[in-house]
Design goal:
By secondary structure, the protein is of the alpha/beta class. Helix content is about 35%, strand content about 15%. It has 14 helices and 13 strands. Strands 1, 2, 3, 6, 7, 8, 9, 10, 11, 12 and 13 form an 11-stranded mixed sheet that branches. A two-stranded antiparallel sheet has the order 4-5. β4 and β5 form a beta hairpin. The N and C termini lie far apart (about 85 Å).
Amino acid sequence: MADYGAVLLCIFISFLQASYAIAAKARAESSEDDLVLNLPGQPPVEFRHYSGYVRLREGDGKALFYWFFEAQGNVSEKPLLLWLNGGPGCSSIAYGASLELGPFLIRNNQSKLIFNNYSWNKVANLLFLEAPVGVGYSYTNKSEDLLVLGDRITAEDSRTFLLNWFKKFRSFKSHDFYIAGESYAGHYVPQLAELIYDGNKHSGKESYINLKGIMIGNAVMNDETDEMGMIDYAWSHALISDALYHTIKKECNFKSDNQTIPCLLAMRSSMEVYEEIDIYSLYTPICLATLDKTSRKRLLTHSRLFSSNDLRGMLPSGYDPCNEHYAEAFFNRKDVQRALHANVTDLPYAYSSCSEVIKKWNDSPESILPIITKLITAGLRVWVYSGDTDARIPVTSTRYSLEILGMKTKVGWRPWFNEGQVAGFAQVYEGGLTFASVYGAGHQVPVLRPQQALSLLVHFLAGDPLPPSRF
């Protein structure tokens, strides 16, 4: 009888241990610890937002930082949208969340945040991710991880992040899921979507992601046409001379990685104009205060760097070309980091809108078009848009790239409208692809055309055609 009691006691203790383990795991995966309560300068809102870290794998030392905003009303009924900025190496928090399409915008060098009336969380639950490690607050405990980064690892780590994020936010697991982004996210978004699509074929309920479509803007998609379109755009917008344009056309073979010396010299000359104007937004002022040689050099990469100079009020929507500088200052504040549950490991470098610690990018395919074709064939919704005043990944590059797909036109090139005014032009292809330009917008479409950008998102999520008439 005593032996039987001992057995029961052992069973009871084992049960308690298992219960405690389950409870501990549930607490570790709870989202409530990431709830943001006292963000400095935040305007009052009725929706909740969360930020913090998601560890990727046991023992690998990687943790990716996110900021998540519940939708403004009807949270359970609205889709989940992941936004990615590009670079490679630039932050979706410093750009997308804080300067473009999030609910709290940084518009000056003071502590007050501005409520965005055209925030994308009006129509979707909105998730921003800093990836890969080394971007923004995202980090790794192993410095060697920073030496092997590239497209493949970024996609794999981003998918692992999502699978673990859904363990924190289980109620969003069944929501329709979309991915959007701009610039080098023309690589990130399709590559991540492909991994999710392929993974869903062999996954159980726990690892299935309800992916419905992707949307990419001013997107790096195909090296040959991206470069060719950039030169044609520069010439057609009177940025380079006829002589220089014809030299490039004669000397450069955009299909080859091996260019002649005359080609390289001519291409370098074509880029010098952007030391004086904003390559990402042709008709807006640049930030002048500390525009030195270093910043000019970075200006010609995928990364943007503005300095501090207050030009508020020069353009509609309170546009200020120095906003990026303000964002970096904001996210380097210790009180902001505490509120966002960020920088918990005291990173040995300052927060930067585009990473200063990623020195090497190991893999970047010349073309992402085969993946886009695969996603379209799979029945996913694919929209591509282009702000038409961007000279870095201009609308000409995007048109050349999409032409390679060889898709039949369903609805021909026509204007689309927002509040009675032309918002851009659009074309619909058979198979589910839509291409739209956004009139008067640069590389970051939501910055200068926030209302039109939100309209674009609304129609994308609904799968509806863009408005073809004024009223």
